[in-house]
Amino acid sequence: MSQRPLALPRPQARHPGLNLGADHAHEADSREEMVFGFWVFMMSDLIIFGLLMATYVTMLGGTAGGPGPKALFELKSVLIQTMLLLVSSATFGMASIALKYQEKRRLVMWLLITLALGFAFLFFELRDFHTMFEKGGVPSRSGYLSAFFSLVPLHGLHVAGASVWLVALLGQMAVHGLDAPVKTGILRLGILWHFLDIVWIGIFSLVYLGGLS
Amino acid sequence: MSVSGRIEHFLRQGSRYVLLIPMLLLSGCGSDMPGFMNPQGPIAQAQRHHFWVVIALVMVVVIPVIIQTPLILWRYRYRGHAVYRPKWDMSRWLDIIMWAVPLLIVAILGVYIWRQTHELDPYRSIASDKPPLEIQVVGYDWKWLFIYPDQGIATMGQLVIPADRPIALELTSATVLQSFFIPALGSQIDVMNRMVTKLHLEADHPGRFEGKNMQYNGEGFHHQRFITRAVEDNAFDAFVARTRRQGRPLDQDTYAIIADKGDNRETARALGLDTSDTDAVIRFSQVPEGLFHTIMGGSPIDWSALNVAPPQLGTTRTSVVQTSESDQSSSSESTSAAPESSEPESAESSSPSHERKEAQP
Amino acid sequence: MSDTTSLIFGRLGWDALPFWSMLTDHSWLSIINGVIATGAAGMVVLGALAAVILVTWLGKWRYLWSEWLTSPDHKKIGIMFIVIALVMLARAIVEAVFMRAQQAVGLDSGFLTAEHFGQLFTTHGTIMVFFMAMPFLTGIINYVMPLQIGARDLSFPVLNQVSLGLTAAGAALVMISLVLAPFSIGGWTGYPPFTELARNPGAGVDYWIWAVTLSTLSSTLTGVNFAVTIFKKRAPGMTLMRMPLFTWTALCTAILMIFGMPPLTVATGLLALDRYLDFHMFTTDLGGNMMNYVNLFWAFGHPEVYILILPPFGIFSEVFATFSGKRIYGYKILVIATMCIAVLSFTVWLHHFFTMGQSAHINAAFGIATMLIGIPTGVKVYDWMLTMYRGRIRLSVPMVYAIGFIMLFVLGGMTGIILATPSVDYQVHNSLFLVAHFHNMLIPGLLFGMLSATNFWFPKATGFRLEERWGYRAAFCWIIGFMLAFFPLYVLGMMGMPRRSVAYFEPQYVPWMIVAGIGALAILCALLCLLIQLWVSIRDRHTNNVFAGDPWDGRTLEWSTASPPPEYNFPVIPEVHSLDAFMTEKEGGRAWRVPDHYGDIEMPANSVMGVVIGLTSLAMAFGLVWYMWWLVIAAGVITLAAIVGRGFVRHTHRIISADEVRTTHERWLERLRQTAPIDRSREQSTDNHGRAMPPVEGAVQ
C-alpha cells in the first residue's frame, strides 16, 4: 500500500541508480529513506574528520624535536595514492552507470576494479607508514605525529571498511542477485566511497601539501 | 580508634552541628562568610558588585515568572470562573514585549560584560602607585610552591604578601591541570604544565585568607590549600629576612621531595620539619634563578645549569655569578626551617627589600 | 601471575574485587569503604541473579526474547530505554546520597576515602548524563514521536535495536565496574592529563572511556534515526509547521546528536589512543596539548546540554497546553525559539573554561553569546505562562512537575547568566555554585520533564493511569528535596567551596552541608514514592484502565489510538489537516470514525542484531578495559560477521493482514462507543477510561 501525503508533493527526483520502476513506489520511498539516512550519517562522520583535521592543525608545532613533515613525507607516493583514489571514484561512477542499466557483468567488473584500486591505495598508504616508522616517525614520538596518526590511518580504516562492504555486497549479489537491497547497498557504498575521496583531498592538501609547503 | 568509637564520634559531632544550624544559617551571610561576598581586595569587591548587578538585571525577567505563575494558576484554576478562551494563541503586543525585554536586558548586559571582562581580566595589572610584587606559583600534587623571584626566596603552605600593594602572579603546574584561587581576593586561574597563566590580585588590608585549588587532581585535592597572609610592608620585609635566615635552600634533593605526591604537611614531614602546626609553612632561603620556567618547560631539571644564588642587594640579577659549591656551603647553616605559627613578625628586623626592588632595572 | 593467566585474564586480578583492600588494610576507614563497596557490588550481583531467577520462575524467557529483546517495535525499545534509565537513576541517586552524607560530616575527614569519593562523583555524573538522561529522553522520544507524527515505526528499526544494545552495554559496563573495581576518579569530564596513563594507570579511566564511547555511538545512531524518521515518515498532511512541539524538539535534539556527539567520540577516542598506543595527544610531555581535549569535550558538552533540555521543553509544551485545555500560545514563536537555541548551542562551548587564560575579548564574546541563548529560552517560559493564561488549568501530576520546572528553571537561568559573566565566573567556576547551577537546570529541567512525560504518557503506553496520590507525593518530594539539596550549594559555592572535595576545613560550611544532606534524603524519599507509585498503579491497573486511549483530552495524534497502541500504531495512517490534529478531529466530530478501507500492514520482523551487537560491544569494551586481547578480537570478529551477515538477510518484514487489523480495530471502536465520555473534573477518578467529553466550540468540558 502506498502512503503518500496529500498536501506534500510527491518527490519527483529519483536516485539514478535505483530504477525500481514506477510500480514500486513504496519500495522506492523506503529505499530513498535509507539513502537519505546514510547521507545524514556521513555528515556526522564528516564532523569527526573535520575535528581531527582541526586538531592536527593545532598540533603542527608539537613535534617535540622529533621528525616533522619535511623529514617524513614522500610526495611521490602520496600523489600515487591520490591518483589511485581519484580513479577509483571514477570507476565507481562507471559501476553506478552499469547499475542503472542493470548490466550485472559490467557492474561486477567495475566494482572489482574499484576494489583493486582501493587495495592498491591501502598498500601504498601502509608502505608510507612503514617508511615513516623507519625514519623514527612513530606516534609515540611527538604530539604532532600522534595527530597525524589519529587522522590519516582513520581514513585508511574507512577505506578498508568500505572494501569489506564492497566484498559483502558482491557476496549478496551472488546469493540474491541484483535485488533492491543490493542496489541500495551499492548506492550507499558509492556515497561513502566518494565521501572518502573528498576527505582524502582534504588530507592531501592539509596534511601533505600543507606540511611540505 | 575503633569503628564503633568513630561512629559515636560522628554522631556526637553531628548532633552538635544540628544544634548549630539555625544560628549559623542566620550568621552565614554575615561578616564571617568566607569568599567574595566578604571581599578583601579590589578585584573581589568588583566581582561582588558585578554579581549583584547581573542579578538585579536578570530579576526583571525572573520576578514576573515567580510572581505571575501562582497568580495565573489560581485565577485560571479548573473550578474558577475566570474567562476561558481555548483558541487564544497569539498576541502581537505580548510577543513584541516578550522578545524586546530580554533582548534589551541582554544588550545592556552585553555592553556591561564586555567592559567588566576587560577591566577584570586577570592578566591586567592593577593600577596602583606602588610597583607590583612578582610571585611565581607552581602547582604540585597537592600543594603550591610560591617563588619570590626578586627576593630569591620561596615558601610552601603559606603565601605572604604585602597589603595594599598589587601582586602579579605567574603560574604553572608541575603536574596536571589545577586552578589557583584565593576567594577573598579575586579571580581564580587555571594552571597547566608547559603553560604560564597570569593573575593579578591585591589585598586591601592585612589579614589571613584561605587559598585553594579548585580543579580536582586526585586523592589529596582537598588538602591542596594554603593560608594567604597579607601583612604590612615592614612585616613583609621581616618575613623575607626571616625566610632567608631560617629557610633551607631549594636544591635538587629538596626538590625531589617536593615533586613527590603528597600534601603540604606530608612534604614538611618528608623534609624533616615539625608538623604539629596546621599552617605548616616551609621556607626556602635560596631559589635557583629560572627554576619556574624550567619547571614549566616540563623536561627534567638540569640543576647544574641553574644559577642557585640569591640576588644581592644593589646588584642586578644577571651580574651575580656564583658556583653551586659555594651555595651549598652558604646554605648549610639554615637547614632547620621551622614551621611558622601565625604570630606577627613585625618585631623582627626588616631587610631593605624595597630598595633592592627599585634598584633593579 | 603466570603467562597463561595473564593471557586469559589480562590485568584482571583478585585485587579488582571490592573487598580486597579491606583484607589487606585493616584501618577503620578501609573497612567502612570496603563494606560499602562490597554492598554495592552485592546489590549488582544479587539484582542480576534475582532478575534471572524471577524470569525463570515465571517461565518468561521465550516471551522476553521474542516480545522484547528481539522486537524492533519502537514502543518496546522506548520502554526498554526507560527501564535502563530508571535502574541507573536509582543507582546514581544512592551515590548522591552517599556523597551528601560524606560531606555533611566532611569537616576535616568523614567516612569515605578520597578514592572512593572520586569514584562516586565520577560514576554519578557519568551515569546521570549518559545512562540516565540520554536513555530516558531517547526512550520517551522513541515511544512518543512516531505516534505523534502518525508513523508506524522509526525509519530504521533494527538500527534502533543496535542503539539500545550499545546503551545497555555501556550501562552494564558501569555496573560491572562495581564488582570488578575500580571506576575512574577523573570526573564525568575526564580531563587529561589527570586521566592519562602516566597519572592514572589503572583500569578505572578505561572503564569510563569505553562506557562513554558506547553511549556516544548509540546516541549518534539514535540521532540519525530520529531525524530521518521526522523528515521522511510524517503522516499525509503533517507539514513541518503542523508537527507537535514535542516532535519539533525531538528533531532539534536529533540534529544536535548528529553534530554534537562526534566531538566526544573524537575526544574519548584520542584519549584511548594516548592510553593504549602511547600517543601524545593530551599528555604534558612530547608536544601534547590538553586544551584540545577541553575544547573537543565542550564542543560536545554544550550541545549536549541542549540535547538534554530541548525534549523536556517539548514535553512541557504539550503538558501546559493539554492541562490548560487550550492551544499552545505562540506555536511559531516556540518553534523559532527552539531552532535558535539549537543553533546557538554550538557557539558557546568556551564558557565552560573562562579561567584557562584566554584573552578578555574571547571570554567576553562567549559570555555574550551565552546570554543570547537566554533570550529564546526566556521567551519560551513566557509562552508557557501565556498558554496557561485564559485556560482552565487542571493541576494533575505532570502539571505539578511543569509548575515546579517553570519556577525553579528561571532561577537556574539566572545563575546561568551569572556564570556566563566572565568576571564573576572567575569567582564561582569549579565551585559548588556551578554544581548547584547545572543541577538546577537538569533536575527541574530534564528530570522533571522526564517524570512529567512518564506520568503524562504512561497511560498511553500501558493502558492504565499512574496512581495520582503517590504521584503528587513524589512530585512534592522532588521539588522540596531539590530546593533543600541544591540551594545551599549556591551559598557554599559563593563561599568558595570547590566541587569534588571529599572533605573541607571551614566550619562555616557545615550547616549548609547538613541542609543539603537532608535534601538528598528528601530526594531519596521521592525515589521511593516513584517506586510505590509504580507498584500501586500496577496493582490497581484494572480500575484505572484507560483503554480508549485519551485520558487527558489530548490534542495530538498519539491520543487518537488505543492504549496501549497496537504494534502498527494506527490501523490506517491518519490524514492531518491542522496543528493539534486530534483535537481538531474531536471538535469536528470526526474522531474515531470507522475507516472505509483497511490495507495489509508491513512491519519490520524481529531481529537479533540489537542483542548481538550489545553483547559483543560489551565484551569488546570489557576486554579493552582489562587488556584481554583475545576477547577483544573475538568480539570484533563476531561483530563484523553479524553486520555482514545481516546484509544477507532478506526476510526483514512481515505482513499483518487487513482482516486482522480490521477485527482488532473495530472491536476496540465498539468498546470505545460503549464507554461513557467523562468531563475533566473526573479525570483522576476511576470513571476515566480514556474517552473525553467532546469539546463544545473548542472548550474543554
TrEMBL record, chain A:
Gene3D superfamilies hit by this protein: Cytochrome c oxidase, subunit III, four-helix bundle
Domain Heme-copper oxidase subunit III family profile: 26-212
GO CC term (a single one): plasma membrane
Cell compartments where the protein resides: Cell membrane
Gene Ontology MF term list: cytochrome-c oxidase activity
Domain of life of the organism encoding this protein: Bacteria
Region entry Disordered, spans: 1-22
Keywords for the protein's UniProt record, in alphabetical order: Cell membrane, Membrane, Transmembrane, Transmembrane helix
Biological process, per Gene Ontology: aerobic electron transport chain
Membrane topology, record value: Multi-pass membrane protein
Pfam family for this entry, one: COX3
Extent of the signal sequence: none
Transmembrane region(s): 36-58, 78-95, 107-124, 144-170, 191-211
UniProt similarity note: Belongs to the cytochrome c oxidase subunit 3 family.
Job description of the protein: Cytochrome bo(3) ubiquinol terminal oxidase is the component of the aerobic respiratory chain of E.coli that predominates when cells are grown at high aeration. Has proton pump activity across the membrane in addition to electron transfer, pumping 2 protons/electron.
SUBUNIT field: Heterooctamer of two A chains, two B chains, two C chains and two D chains.
The protein's name: Cytochrome bo(3) ubiquinol oxidase subunit 3
Organism expressing this protein natively: Kushneria avicenniae
Lineage per the UniProt record: Bacteria, Pseudomonadati, Pseudomonadota, Gammaproteobacteria, Oceanospirillales
UniProtKB/TrEMBL annotation, chain B:
A Gene Ontology BP annotation from the UniProt entry: ATP synthesis coupled electron transport
Segments passing through the bilayer: 17-37, 49-73, 93-114
Pfam families xrefs: COX2
One term under GO cellular component: plasma membrane
Region described as Disordered: 314-361
Biased composition (Low complexity): 318-341
SUPFAM superfamilies per UniProt: Cupredoxins, Cytochrome c oxidase subunit II-like, transmembrane region
Keywords, sorted A to Z: Cell membrane, Electron transport, Membrane, Oxidoreductase, Respiratory chain, Signal, Transmembrane, Transmembrane helix, Transport
Domain (Cytochrome oxidase subunit II transmembrane region profile) ranges: 28-124
Annotated CDD domains: CuRO_UO_II (cd04212)
Coiled coil: none
Organism name: Kushneria avicenniae
Cytochrome oxidase subunit II copper A binding domain: residues covered: 130-242
Localization (cell): Cell membrane
InterPro entries: CcO_II, CcO_II-like_C, Cupredoxin, CuRO_UO_II, Cyt_c_oxidase_su2_TM_dom, Cyt_c_oxidase_su2_TM_sf
Stated name of the protein: Cytochrome o ubiquinol oxidase subunit 2
Membrane topology: Multi-pass membrane protein
Keyword Kinase (UniProt): no
Family according to the record: Belongs to the cytochrome c oxidase subunit 2 family.
Gene3D superfamilies attached to this UniProt entry: 1.10.287.90, Cupredoxins - blue copper proteins
UniProtKB/TrEMBL annotation, chain C:
GO BP term, pick one: respiratory electron transport chain
Positions of region (Disordered): 674-701
GO cellular component, one term: plasma membrane
MF (Gene Ontology): cytochrome bo3 ubiquinol oxidase activity; cytochrome-c oxidase activity; heme binding; metal ion binding
The UniProt record lists the keyword Nucleus: no
Domain Cytochrome oxidase subunit I profile per the UniProt entry, residue ranges: 59-577
Comp. bias (Basic and acidic residues): 674-690
Keywords: Cell membrane, Copper, Electron transport, Heme, Iron, Membrane, Metal-binding, Respiratory chain, Transmembrane, Transmembrane helix, Transport
Subcellular location: Cell membrane
SUPFAM superfamilies: Cytochrome c oxidase subunit I-like (SSF81442)
Membrane-related topology note: Multi-pass membrane protein
TM regions (residue ranges): 28-58, 79-101, 121-144, 164-187, 207-231, 243-273, 293-321, 333-354, 360-379, 400-421, 441-458, 470-492, 512-536, 603-622, 628-649
Keyword Heme in annotation: yes
One matching Pfam family: COX1
Record family assignment: Belongs to the heme-copper respiratory oxidase family.
Name listed for the protein in its UniProt record: Cytochrome o ubiquinol oxidase subunit 1
Species this chain originates from: Kushneria avicenniae
Phylogenetic lineage: Bacteria, Pseudomonadati, Pseudomonadota, Gammaproteobacteria, Oceanospirillales
